[in-house]
Amino acid sequence: MGVVVVSGGTNGMGRALALGRAERGDRVVVLGRNRERGAALAASGIDFLPVDLSSVAENRQVIEHLLTRYPVVDALALFANAAAPRRIVTGEGLERTFALYYLSRYLLSFGLRPALDRAPAPVIVNVAGVGVTKGGVRWTDPQLTSRYSMVAAQLQAGRANDLLGVGFAERSSSRARYVLYHPGFTRSGDRSPLPLLLRGLLAAASVAARPVTAAVTPIHQFLDTPPAAPLTAIDRDKRLPLSLPTLDPGNAERLMALTAELLG
Ligand SMILES: NC(=O)c1ccc[n+]([C@@H]2O[C@H](COP(=O)([O-])OP(=O)(O)OC[C@H]3O[C@@H](n4cnc5c(N)ncnc54)[C@H](OP(=O)(O)O)[C@@H]3O)[C@@H](O)[C@H]2O)c1
């Protein structure tokens, strides 16, 4: 039993994991924006911290708070993401998908390291799209100022998360095991920002999608028994070789440098 921090734990897979961990007796801390959903979780004994994770400043504040309040963190599970059909620029001048889906995970992974390193068997699970080979980081325009599309933004941030796993395992000198997990097409995800036609198509296709409980089952296993290796990549139930071109250490190094520079 330990402390589990869940980013994007107010809905979808994150919420299912949070409730499942609370049932198992863990102390669960959920990060998200929706206060009503947060209050409902609080009624189940879960700590809810309202935060907009697309803001670097708010990520930093919540990390400070977590480090003070929870000196030992056993697991960090990263789920927060949102679709943006049109390019959105945050108050800090960043493309929102990049900020929310990637930068927040970078900040939380490295920022919570001291608390993770105090745990007996710490683990970070980054739920994204490892194994996907389409798209990638636009090195010369990571803020996607030209040729923006929702899919390009999702694929870029997804790949950045793959490289974050590689970079964290390589650079952090943390004891925390890093798991990149692709849940496959799952019956979750906020579709409200999407165009009506796409919403309809996804609703029809979701008959074939995995139930949320099935998608989070492997995550419970990663938390119960963290892998021995510093980095593990899993697509549904299939272990992926770390030699995949999408997990290239040179690209990871390049992204870590770019991110450090961006964050000043
Ligand atoms: N569903 C799928 O088929 C599928 C397939 C492959 C990969 N994935 C990946 O799996 C992860 C979880 O997906 P899901 O389907 O469970 O998503 P979801 O149901 O849409 O949940 C997303 C979570 O992110 C939070 N969030 C969104 N914007 C936020 C912000 N600005 N600040 C803080 N929290 C924010 C939401 O909470 P609030 O509304 O409270 O902010 C919610 O808790 C995502 O990374 C997704 O890319 C999903």
TrEMBL record:
Short name of any one Pfam family annotated for the protein: adh_short
Record keywords: Oxidoreductase
SUPFAM superfamilies, per database record: NAD(P)-binding Rossmann-fold domains (SSF51735)
Organism whose genome encodes this protein: Micromonospora andamanensis
Family: Belongs to the short-chain dehydrogenases/reductases (SDR) family.
Record's protein name: SDR family NAD(P)-dependent oxidoreductase
